[in-house]
Amino acid sequence: MNQPARPPFVAALADAPLPASGIAWLDQARRENLDAFVAAGLPDTRVEAWKYTALRALAQRSFVAGDGQAAGRPVDRAALALPGVDGPTLVFVNGAFRADLSALDALPEGVSLLPLSRALTEDPETLRFALSRHYREPGDAFARINGAFAADGAVLRVADRARIATPLRLVFVGAAADHDLAWHVRNLVEVGEGAEITLVEQHLDAGGQAHLGTQLAELTLRADAVLHHVVLQQAGASSLVRRSHYRLDTRTRAHLHVLELGGALARHDLWAELVGDAAAFHTHGAFLPDGRQHVDTQLAIHHRARDTVSSSTWRGVASGRGRGVFRGAIVVNAGADGADASLNNKNLLLSPQAEIDTKPELEIYADEVKAAHGATVGQLDERALFYLRSRGIPGAQARTLLTSAFARAPFESLPHQALREHIDQLLLSRLPA
Amino acid sequence: MLKIDNLHARVEGKDILKGLSLEVKPGEVHAIMGPNGAGKSTLGNVLSGREGYEVTEGSVLFEGRNLFELEPEERAAAGVFLAFQYPVEIPGVNNTYFLRAAFNAQRRARGEAELDSMQFLKLVREKLKIMQLSPDLLNRAVNEGFSGGEKKRNEIFQMALLEPKLAILDETDSGLDIDALKQVAEGVKALRSPERSFIVVTHYQRLLDYIVPDFVHVLAGGRIVESGDRSLALKLEEHGYAWVAEHGEPAGASA
User: Fold this and answer.
1) Most buried in the list A17, A46, A338, B251, measured by CB within 10 Å?
2) Phi, psi of A90 (to 5 degrees)
3) Band of the pLDDT at A3, cuts 50, 70, 90?
4) Which residues of B touch A381 (CB under 8 A)?
5) Pick the residue with more confidence: B61 or A134?
């Protein structure tokens, strides 16, 4: 160890013990991931993917790796409730599965849902491919950390042709601890041929503490599968770095609705590979950085097969000194003829200190492609504001009304009414009244 | 009810109103006519408190209160209503939600009890009948995708719901076909009462065939240059605004 100036963040993780699995290939993969992370450290803003998200402040912090007392952390069960969604639920506290808070007794037929920690003891070989992965890109620091330390998470497998109406729920809670913790979860989702599920993923904060969470998720849709994926990120003062990697086979459909409300630093890499003909990937999302929050969404959609479709509708609202970053990259590869891709990102700045950087990118290497993209940054419509006030609605309420209407637009396509109403409430209560 | 005295106002550094005076008593209907650019819309915007309009001289008293000390929402709660010439489309804000928010905000400001959603819906249904508006407009976003006629009728519907003391109709007749014009006029007639006053701003006199005014004023060059009864509107119709320029001596307040 002759590297002199290792930042505290890297040093703390370099010296942290890796989780012991007793599985030779896994221990080896973890060690290799950690070594790769320690060697390269955190990316700086010269790395394109991290251009607008500086990690200097994070690099100066040191986190305790994992929570040895996660099983006993008190978490208010009522705070985890989600109106209208009361089906099978996996709850993780500071990165560790909590059977006492979860509900797995009524799994629908065709659904296998279990914590990674258990899947690893029961049948590790089926996870070998996913968990042996190496991350080689300069921006992969957090994937490496996750690959080294993640010992829990959700493993969801849906059998062919199983059509499940009840939403399945994953809840990740940050709870108070003696130190700021770094915890890591790994999710693997596989939706079988012709199967259909709704997956609700929540990130909650129960202690107001500034933990760091990382999440690495792989979601695979076999032919003709349908996935509705709703993500509600309310991580509070924690920092949260996630990567969700979707792989869509022939004629699959994925509908994502993502609400980013929390996080001191919230970063979401949202990648999709449309590898089967006529696969369709639709994303809808809103991010609302306030205070000193920094919320960064990096969307990358690769059209790799014929007649694939993608659409992306994202709204950003920045207030206070909040900073939003949105990068939407669509790549239509050679051979993906007949692809149809659209991307739209509209943003509102509610204060002079707020900032949003948006960057739509389009690369097309195929023929007969339909593609459209656009991005705007603006302020509230003064005409609309005056119209509301002229009818008696006080200025502050009129602003909230217009802002929430702006932010909720991506969720109008959400079929689950209770969730839609819940999101409305979250938006209204979150915005300055 | 409303007393405008020697009102001067400017927009973007340009003087538009140059000494307008007008008194409106309870129950009266005043029509304000005039050529384009005379300052007709400026009057409505100044009275309702739109930003960007600078009052440089004069005063406006509404029920004895200085209107310029009130925010737009306070003017609304006090009973001033402007029917917009160009109603604004507000995507994502549900029409019913908007109406109830406005209705209850005004009641709250006046210290009155708010209506819950059931009570409010009942009231809305009653008022909808008056305007012959389709109930499905209520479930859409405010004015979004409404036809020109629907937008104007929606303005009058809001007026029926909010029951202002003073309603200013800013060229509500513009862009309406004759059927829509009649519907708007019927809505206004239904709301006429000894306590409620109207200022009807229009370029054409045809609306006044249906909403018969007590007084007609001609606004030109930022001032009222002629006042009279309904026959003045007919004269204007016959001779055009050029006639005012020739015969109209700048006149003071009316009524």
Assistant:
1) A338
2) -110, 130
3) low
4) 88, 90
5) B61
Task: For residue B253, name the pLDDT band (cuts at 50, 70, 90).
Answer: very low
B111: contact with A, CB 8 A cutoff: no
* Predicted pLDDT at B251: 44
Cβ of B64 under 8 Å from any chain A Cβ? Answer: no
Instruction: Kindly report the nearest CA distance between residue A388 and chain B, in angstroms.
Output: 8
Residue A101 in contact with residue A111, Cβ under 8 Å? no
Q: How far apart are alpha carbons A292 and A264 in whole angstroms?
A: 7
ipTM exceeding 0.90, yes/no: yes
Put simply, whether B154 touches A (Cβ < 8 Å) is no
pLDDT in tens, B181-237: 888 898 889 999 999 999 999 988 888 988 999 999 999 989 999 899 988 888 888
Q: What angle do CA B189, B190, B194 make, to 5 degrees?
A: 80
User: B56 in the Ramachandran plot: left (φ > 0), alpha (ψ -120 to 50) or beta?
Assistant: alpha
Radius of gyration of chain A (CA): 21
Confidence of residue A2 (pLDDT cuts 50, 70, 90): low
Does A392 sit within 8 Å of B88, measured CB to CB? Answer: no
Query: How many C-beta neighbours within 10 Å does residue B51 have?
Result: 11
Q: How far apart, in whole angstroms, are the C-alpha atoms of residue A108 and residue A90? A: 14
B110 touching chain A per CB within 8 A: no
* pLDDT-above-90 percentage for chain A: 91
The mean per-residue pLDDT over the stretch A324-352 comes to 97
Query: Is some CB atom of chain B closer than 8 A to the CB atom of A411?
Result: no
Which residues contact residue A214 at a Cβ distance below 8 angstroms, ignoring those fewer than 6 apart? A142, A145, A146, A150, A182, A183, A184, A185, A240, A241, A242
Cβ contact (<8 Å) for B91 and A405? yes
C-alpha closest to that of B187 among B159, B150, B206, B164: B159
pLDDT at position A178 over 70: yes
Average confidence (pLDDT) over B114-121: 93
A70, pLDDT greater than 70: yes
- What DSSP line would sit under A363-413, residue for residue? EE-SSS-EEEEEEEEE---HHHHHHHHHTT--HHHHHHHHHHHHHHGGGTT
Cβ within 8 Å of residue A384, ≥6 positions away = A402, B88, B90
pLDDT number for residue B38: 85
Nearest one of B255, B254, B217 to B236, comparing CA atoms: B217
- Partner residue facing A391 (CB), from B50, B71, B162: B162
Could A387 and B84 be called an inter-chain contact, meaning their C-beta atoms sit closer than 8 Å? yes
* Tokens linked to A18: 């890796």
Residue B214 and residue B30 in contact, taking contact as beta carbons nearer than 8 Å: yes
Scanning A367-406 for CB atoms below 8 A from B yields 381-384, 386-395, 397-398, 401-402, 404-406
Burial class (CB in 10 A: 0-12, 13-18, 19+), B253: middle
Mark yes or no for CB contact A384/B88 under 8 Å: yes
For residues A400, A402, A406, A408, the Cα torsion angle rounded to the nearest 10 degrees is 60
Spatial contact of A305 and A280, defined as CB atoms under 8 Å apart? no
- Looking at the predicted structure, is the pLDDT value of residue A84 above 80? yes
A407-412 average pLDDT score? 95
User: What is the rounded CA–CA span in Å between residue A372 and residue A394?
Assistant: 38
Check residue A136 and give its pLDDT: 85
State the smallest CA–CA distance between residue A408 and chain B in angstroms.
Answer: 7
